[in-house]
Design goal:
Helix content is 61%, strand content 15%. It is α+β, with helices and mostly antiparallel strands.
Amino acid sequence: MMTLARLLEKNRNNIIEIWVKKLKHEVSPKYSVLPVENLYKTITRITDANFDALIKDNYKPLDNSIQWIANLRSRAGFSLTEIQKAFELYRTILLDFLSSDLDPDEVFKAIKKINEMMAHTIHKFSDYYQALHDAEIQEYAKTLEKKVIERTKQLAESEKKYKMLVEKIRDGYFVNQGGKIVFANRAFCKMHGYTKKEALGRDYTDFISPVSLEEVKRIYEERINKGISKQLYVYFRLTKKGDSLPTENTVTLTNYEGKIAAIGICRDITERIEIEKRMREAESLAHIGNLTTSLAHEIRNPLSSAKMSIQMILKNNNILGTDRRRLEILSQQILRLDKIVTEMLDFAKPLKFDFVEYHLPDLIDNCIEVLESKIKEKNIIIKKAFDKNLPNIMIDKDKMEQAIINLLLNSIDAVDIKGRIWIYLKEIKRKEIVRLSIKDNSCGIDNNDLPYIFDPYFSKKPKGTGLGLANAKRIIEAHKARIDAY
């Protein structure tokens, strides 16, 4: 059997050949793209240095080779792990030769020497890379120190400007330079839902709702290009969440840090718009109420007389066949008109409440029971999903029941035979609110009609009065709640 020295000499070229191939295909993409001739040169040098270390206990050629390769590979962006994997291949390759050409005792000694050499190699590479890392950190620390000094000075100047300009301003303050927000106070960022870091540097159009974008862009371009445009205007801002909210802007041109810029103050007018809307609705409803009350009384008196007369005629058993059927139809239509008049009077009546603590699931069950005949008539399936342990809430039981019945009737009328209606009750714990949702599998409401479905007398039903949902909205909002349709 041969010695380790003889084995290494005999298989030198084979070891180099195998090592190069494995480097090209098994370590990392960075080795794969290196020219083959460069790899042969490097591997040949390392193979010979390893021989000196293993056979002659001379580690100097290996140490020199490690320093040479570490310099070469670190400049090329190779990581310590990649280099260590490349060197580990030598041990893997030798094991295949050792088991076949050396006797067992020699194999054990050879493996021990190879492991010692590999440990030496890995430690040397680690030390070298650590030294490089330490040097880079020291250099970076020096650079960072300079930047910190410079930045501290800039921040001190910026802080003075900030305190002077916007510390006491509650409205949003911003500077738009070249179409980008280069300065914004805390109120501006809060209004739009951004942090200061997120807001600065963004295009000003990112804060404008699509419904107002063209108009605001026109105003901005007139101001920048002509120097003339209206200073005060109302638009819809866009928040980070995608909400579109009414806003009032006061903007003027100025010089900011040596360049022309538009500075402005924006104010949230959501509450003001809502108050104005409610005032208009109240005025409109008051007018409708007066007109409705007068009209309803004028209709109800002759209607009552007609209803009584028909009922008396129907008691005459001599009226048969088609004549009786016509009178019955007439009686039904009078009842329908009477119901419409009642709805009109209910809508015109001022709301008076008698609040009690009540369990909402029980109220829902009562409403379903009232509408049981209509539900069975269309063979509708009602599905309920209520949160457990829902709290009792303060409501006017009768009026809230009326509102929920109106909502359920809307779904019952909308679905087909064997339709489905889902009723959900969910507690929003963080807000201490109970949410009631009613959903059905009808064709739904046209998007163009959605803004108007709670308006009095708006209806797309052939026999609808347009007061059911309007009454429901009035009752629910009087409970300081909110109703929405999707």
